[in-house]
Structure formats: C-alpha cells, structure tokens
Amino acid sequence: RTGPLRSEDGPPRGRAMPPKKSARKDASRDENTPNKNSHSEGQNGKTGSDDKAAAIEALRQTLKSEREKITLLRRPDRTLVLFVQYVTSFVARRVVQILRKPVMWLVVVPFIGLWVAAKRSLAPELFVPPVCGERDGGILWQAEFAVFEAAWWLILGILSSIGFGTGLHSGLMFLFPHVMQVVGAAEGCHTTNGLVPWYQHPCKLDCSTTWGPKDDSTVTFLRLWSLVTVQCMLWGVGTAIGEVPPYAVAKAARLSGSTDSEFQAEVDEARKKADLFNKMKIWTINFTEKHGFVGVFLLAAWPNAAFDMCGMCCGYLMMPFWTFFLATALGKGVVKVNLQAIVFVNLFGSGFFHVLATGVESLNHSLAGVVGKDFGLKTLLVKGRTTLLQQFELQSRVSPHKLFVGQEDGDLDIEDLKEMYAKYSGGSQIAERVLGHWDKDANGSLDLHELREAASRTDGMVSLGALDPGAGQSFFKMCWELFVVGLVLFFVVSIMNQLAQYRQQEADDEKLEAMEREAGEKTESKDESKKEDKKAQ
Known about the structure:
This protein is an all-alpha fold. It contains 18 helices and two strands.
C-alpha cells in the first residue's frame, strides 16, 4: 500500500504536525512574560519615586528644625555670619536694581547735584534756617526740613511694626509723648496760632512764634488735633510699610510652589490652642479670606495684635500688593492713628480733664452722702495730673540754645538754674546737681558748649529731666529705662535671628530644589529607557 513517507520515529515527512498543547502553553507564557516584567518594573519605579519624595520631605523637616536653632543665643557665630550675608546680598541686589533704572541717571542724580550746588554756592540764602519769633526759614530749607521730618516719623512707624510682632514700640516712646507735649505747649502758650508742632524743628513748641490773642480761645479740640494729625498719619503709614515683610515672605513662598512654613506653623499652633488670642488669629485669617480689601482695611483700623497673620494670609492667598498695601495704609495711617490721636488729645487736654473732674466731684459728693466722709477725689485727681504734667515737662525735649533765651551774659549760673527748676519738687537740689555734673570747667556756670555735650546723639536735643544726674536714681525711672532698653534689644535680636534664618532658608531651598530636579531627571531617563525597550521588543 502506498502512502506518505514516514520517518522511522516521527510523523510523515511531507506534512507538518500541529504543536502539542504543552507547547502552546509555553509559547503563551513566553508572550505574556514581557508584560509582567514591564508591570513589575513600573511598580518598582513608582516605589522608588515615592521613596525619594519621602526622603526629600524628611530632609525638609530636618532642615527646618535645624534652621529654628539659628539664633544669637544658641548659635551666635552662625547667626552673625548669615545675618551679614543676608544684609550684604539684599543691599547689593537693591543697589544694582536702582542703578540700572534710567530715571536714576536722568532725573535723580542731576536733581541731587543741582540741589547740592544750590545749597553750597548758587542760592544759599534759600537754605537759611529760621530765627524763632523773627523770621521763617528759606523756602528750600523748609522743603529739606519737610523731607527729614516725614522720614523721621515714617522710620519710627516702620520700626514699630516690622519684625513679625517684635517691633520697637516707637508710638509709646515717641509719638504719644509728642502729642502730649504739643497739647501741653498749646495750653501753656494759651494759643495754637503760629505754634510749631514739628518734632525736628528748631522752633518746636516755642511760644515766641505764636501770634494773635492769647486767651485760650484757639485752644480747642479741633485745633489741637490738627497740630498732631500729620505726624500721626506719617507714623501710621510707616507702620503699614512695616507690615509688608510678612506679606512678601508668604507670597514669595507661594509663588515658588512651596508652602510658607512660618504661616502654616502659626496656623497649626493657633488651631491647637483654645485661648482668646489664638482664636483671634484664626478669626483674622477667615475674615481676611472672606472679605478681601474691606477685610484688610477693617482689621488694620484698630490696634490689632494679630495683624501679622493678616499680612501673611494675604500673601498666601496671592492678594495683589497694592490691594493689600492701600487697605493697610488707609486702616493704619488714616483711621487707627487718628482715633488714637483723638483719645490722647482728649486725655491730656484741659477741656476733657475739666469734664472728668466734674464727674469725679459728683461721685465724691455721692460717696460723702452715703459714707459720711469726704474722700477728696477731685483734689487727688488734680494733684495727680499736675504731677504728671510736671514730669512730662521735665522730659520735654528742646534745642540747647533755647535754655539760654533771655540770658544776657549767655551763661546759666546757679540762680538761673534754680529759677528754671523752681516749680518742680526739689527744684533747688536738682539745680545744684545739674550744675555740679555739667560744669566741666568749674567756673560756676553752664555755657552752650557744655549743654551741647549733654544733648542726645539721636536728635541733638536735651530735656530738663535728662540734665539731672540724680533723676536716674528713681526706681520707677530706672525700671522704665530698663524696659525701653529691653524693647530695643529684643527688637534688634529678633530681626537678626529672622534675617539669618531667611538666609539659611534660601540655601536650604536651593538644596531641596536641586534634589527634586535630580530625582525628576532620573525618573525621566528611566521612562525613556522603558519606551526604548518596548520598541525594541
């Protein structure tokens, strides 16, 4: 029988046999193996990426905790180095930015050159200072003085609010005593016409510059308020400028794609605590986020201890700069300071005091009718106010030459000093102490040169209280001076710590960004290699 040729141990040679089932399974397994490997590699890549992200986040927290240790108390050397680096870098960047602007070379530099030339040689008569009671200063002297006076109050305002709540309390130290001094001088001169209320003016609060009837007819609340409102508003605008750093830090952090760690830390801490101040912080954040410009304005229009949180919240929420600054300037520089000025003018003015004294006298009569004893409350009130005003007059700052007005020989002897201190308690002893301490040439009198040595290096002025070397022995005065020194030191140390930490944060952020960029590049290279492997398969 004929048929297909067969091999001895196999199938016919002319026809291919179908594969066995086991062979099909093996082939199918081989085909599916690359997909499983690919899936496994994807899982491994994802796990590696998560591990790197976790490592970067852990490093971020470590750097943050180390950064918080950078203070003058813990690491003084490192803090000083970082502080100097930050200040140097900041100043260099700002100077370069200013010098690159065309308006600097086309307008500012020529204007300054022309101003100096006019003051030195072209028109020096326009810069003549005033003579109190005789003539006003030259027109350009007045313009120059206006710039210095405005800068003085703006800088004090900035120092008051800058530093995330650690600012120098310049309102308590300078502005409010100045308001009290202006009110006292107006009542002492019995008029406000012609009275000079400017802090740096050589004729400040000098009665010789006044004119018109001196019958107290012009010493009204509105007139007194008008004498101090400009200084108060300049100081208030300065406090608004001082609120910019918290806003700028939070906004810069948000723009860089990271969260503001200080803002988040403040919020987390405030949410954990149940006291009134931290509740007010949370309420401030919610109120700002809800009401925007109007919310910032209302929060700035009263003495709000939590306003730093408002600035940080506005930066975190990406509120436009001018929206934030205008709302803050209007609230702090117009509303809040004028409310404070109204309070202090009424508090230190005689009109409000007479109303208060009448009320106290009525209360005293009522108590006397019930108890049967006269407590003399009005007398105590008058005595206390007189003592307060006398202490204030002792601290009133004037130019040294004003103490020699009316002295024909140009010196102050012991009799002149006793007359000067006569209305104060222990005036004769004060006069003897002042003469003994400041009479350097021991001729029995004080001249202008000796009093200029006693003037403050800050504003070049003196006060009757500061001339008394024994006045510092008072426990209350010593405590007050220590309090003021403590405020200044706390402010300086806080600013140095914060700027040093900012500098370290910049370095830490650069390190973290480099690690994230490196991790991203490795992930991209792995993805590309996987794509090439798939194409090859």
